[in-house]
Amino acid sequence: MMRREPAWRMFSAELNSSSMTYKGEEEKSPSYLITPLGAKVNRVLAAGVLTDKENVGSEDEPMWRARVNDPSGSFYVNAGRYQPEASAALADLEPPKLVAVVGKVRTFSPDDGRVFVSIRPESIVEVDEAVREAWVLEACRATMERMRTLKLAVAAGGTAEDLVKQGVPRQLASGMTMALDYYGVPDSGRYIRVLQEAFRFLLPDEDVDLGLTEDVSSIADKEERVEVDVDAEDTLMDLIDELDSDGKGAPISKLIDEAQSKDISEVGFEEISNSLMDKGLIYEPVLGKLKRI
After folding, report:
1. Does residue 50 contact residue 56 with C-beta atoms inside 8 Å?
2. What is the pTM of this model?
3. How far is CA 231 from CA 203, 234, 237, in A?
4. Do 145 and 197 reside in the same domain of the chain?
5. Alpha carbon distances (Å) from 107 to 96, 119, 292
6. pLDDT band for position 289 (50/70/90)?
7. Which end of the chain is more exposed for a tag (fewer CB within 10 A), N or C?
8. What's 30's DSSP letter?
9. Residue 113, Ramachandran bin (φ over 0: left; ψ between -120 and 50: alpha; else beta)
10. Three-state DSSP state, 59
11. What CATH number has the domain bearing residue 280?
12. CA distances (Å), 112 to each of 19, 58, 107, 115, 168, in order?
């Protein structure tokens, strides 16, 4: 009997930055996506805000495309005739909703060489805020553990078997060595910033020390994080409420104009709106509009 693959907990930023796929040599071996932090992923468990969905199939044979936002970005979900339970669930869910999704990862590469990652869901269910927060905390814990193990792998060198001898689980050790061969040493600063944003989401009033350093790699070109003013966020939220006249979202072009009249530059508007989306407070229901969740 074939062992069921574990459902990894990870942020969309790590999943979407992955481009390496691997399939074992045996006939029925599962396929894997190798992430820059060394996860060897066949299935994932994700949670966040279902911000939009679209039926790109037909009424008789729907094919749903959906987006689920977490503190680091978006998971992309596709469900059709071969995922009847998840497809039926998506048909009944009206965004915005807090959801949890478990499913297999899939990749698509157009002619330009880019790699797009999506989730083919086995199930998708509505959840409450407590479940979403528990998932964020678990994803933080798992990400920090992969970062620490990757640091060990970089320092120790050697093979996957060498890592196993040091106590690293075999599947993670295998993924770590493949990731380092394919991606090289990752920019750990990027993932530290993902963790910082996730902890700010969980503890908005606390100054959390992650206890991590950025010496997994040299980060010569590290970008300085721009702190977003809380009052400016409140101002933009008020503007969204004022300009959302039909309940379908406030036009971004009008929001920018009104924000400038309140001393928020266009660059500042972009930073503030991104921060609010990362926190799960607003979303983009259609291109060119923002709406409060």
Report:
1. no
2. 0.71
3. 18, 5, 10
4. yes
5. 26, 9, 31
6. confident
7. N
8. P
9. left
10. coil
11. 1.10.10.10
12. 13, 28, 14, 9, 37
> CA 194: distance to chain centroid?
9
Please report the sign of the dihedral spanned by the C-alpha atoms of residue 258, residue 261, residue 267, residue 268: negative
Tell me 96's DSSP state. Answer: S
Last residue of a domain, one of 95, 127, 159: 127
DSSP 106-138: EEE--TT---EEEEEEEEEEE--HHHHHHHHHH
Q: Are residues 189 and 261 in the same domain?
A: no
- Give the 3-state secondary structure of residue 49: strand
Residue with tokens 């100054």: 207
11 and 84 assigned to the same domain: yes
- Strand pairing partners for 34? 20, 40
Measure the CA–CA gap between 144 and 179, rounded to whole angstroms.
16
**Do 23 and 61 lie in a common domain?**
yes
End-to-end CA distance of the chain: 44
Residue-wise pLDDT for 235-288, tens only, equals 999 999 999 988 888 988 899 989 989 888 877 887 788 778 766 778 777 667
CA-wise closest residue to 233 among 202, 196, 271, 207: 271
3-state secondary structure 207-276: CCCCCCCCCCCCCCCCCCCCCCCHHHHHHHHHHHHHHCCCCCCEEHHHHHHHHHHCCCCHHHHHHHHHHH
DSSP SS3 for 182? helix
> In this structure, are residues 87 and 62 in contact, taking their beta carbons and an 8 Å threshold?
yes
Q: Residue 282 is part of which domain span? A: 230-292
Residue keyed to tokens 């894997």:
32
Number of structural domains in the chain:
3
